[in-house]
Structure formats: structure tokens, C-alpha cells
Amino acid sequence: MNEDDSLMDRVLDFISETAVYESAAAACRIGYAVPGGNSGSLMSFSHLLEKFVHLDFTEDEAIRHWERILLVAQQLERKLGQHVSAYLAIVDYFTSAEHVFDSPVLIEVHVLRKTEELAMLDGLTGAFNRRYMDVALKKELNRSTRYGKQFSLIILDIDDFKRLNDTYGHEVGDIVLQEFSDAARSAIREEDVFCRYGGEEFLVILPETDTSGAYVLAERIRHQLESAAIHETYGITFSAGTVTYPDYADNSADLLRRVDRALYQAKFNGKNQTVSAVADTL
Predict the structure, then answer these.
(1) pTM value?
(2) Cβ atoms of residues 249 and 258 within 8 Å
(3) Which residues belong to the active site?
């Protein structure tokens, strides 16, 4: 990748994040101060500077771009007679002033993809969200039924998470959720789907995986967690339940019910272990 391509990719990521940020904050615009004392609808300087630096711009580059974006915003506002969004000002700047892009069409396609991607993710942990989980589970159930394949679910629940929150506060709790998610995702396979089920619970969809394979993967996640900083610092462990289709359940509701009961059994047995749903015992 040459330097121009690298710049283009960084700018595309920046513009996409700006568009998503503005969409989320549409009901309460975040103002900025412009020369002359007027206020507009762009993000604050510190927020934008942080974004630029995060995308490998130097602080000098970030300041230079920001000052020019402000000028473009002012010009557009004078021309249109109204405030303009950060997205509009930045797109105009990088297409008309900096000529990083020949057309805003490429930007629009990239922003659409980024927005769709972020809509599927849990904002805190980066795992797929519950809404996406429901869709993915239905698709895997249909695929496995059609081709006569097995698949399994693992539900993971961080042990004593409420006590951790009460003892150390929600900020530490958020860090634990993030690092737990990272550890789990690093242990699963590329084809597996890792989702935040709710609170401190996560669910993994395992295509073409039997009961023993699901158990092995759950224990691999446990091993990965044991090497994570949150395990050493806070003694974090988790309990897990597994269930396999079509062996022990034949629809989404039963799969979720039985994997949840397997998790409950793991908790009842003393936590920090995996229990697999088998026959009619769970």
C-alpha cells in the first residue's frame, strides 16, 4: 500500500466514524467555537484531534486539517445560510480542498458499510449484539437443517460479576467485559459467531460442531482467560453451558432454553466450569 492509499484509508475511517457519531448525537448537537464567536454543529476540537491522532495523524497534521475544515465549514455556512454538519464539512474538505478523493461516492459507500457494521456490534465489547445474534442463530439453524449438519451453542457467564461491580465500580466492570470479550474472541475459530447475549453473558454459535467440540472450545476460552490480565488482577472466572443441534434441541427457543439450563447447572456445581446439555437431564 502506498502513502496515498494509506491516507485515503485513514480519511475514510475518520469520515465514517464522524458520520456514525453525528447520527448518534443528532438529537443533541455537540458545538464548536469558530473564529468570530459563532457556534456550529461540528464536534469539539479535542474530540476531533483525538480521532485524527488515533488514525496515525500527527498532532501537527491534525491541527492543520482541523483549522482548514473549520474554514471550509464557515464558507459552506455562509453559502448555504445555515449550520453544516461535521460530515459535510469534512467530505467537502477532503474532496474539494485536499483532493484526496475524486468523488464523494466512494466515501458514501464506505460510510454505509461502516454504519451497517457498527449497527451489528455491541458498543462496549465489540462482540456482535443481541439483534445480530438472533439473525445469525436463525440462519445457522436453517443451514444446518437443510444440509443435515450439527451445530452447537456455548453460553459464557462471568462468575460473581455483580460483586465485582459493587466492589470496584462499573468502570472496572466495563474493562473486565472488554478484556473478557477480547480473550474469548482470540480463542474461537474464524467461522464462529461471538455475541453479547446480555449483561455479563456471551453466546458463541459454532457451525458444524458436536457436543465434545463445543466443550473443548469452551475450555480453550477458559485457558485463554487464565493468561489475561483481568484473571490475575481480579481473579475473573466464568461458567459455561453448551448445547448441540439437533441432538438435544431442534429449534431456537429450545436451544437457548437448554443452554441456559446447562449454564445454571455449571453455576450450581460450583462455577468456573463447563456443563453440556445431554439427553433429557437438562
Answers:
(1) 0.62
(2) yes
(3) 200
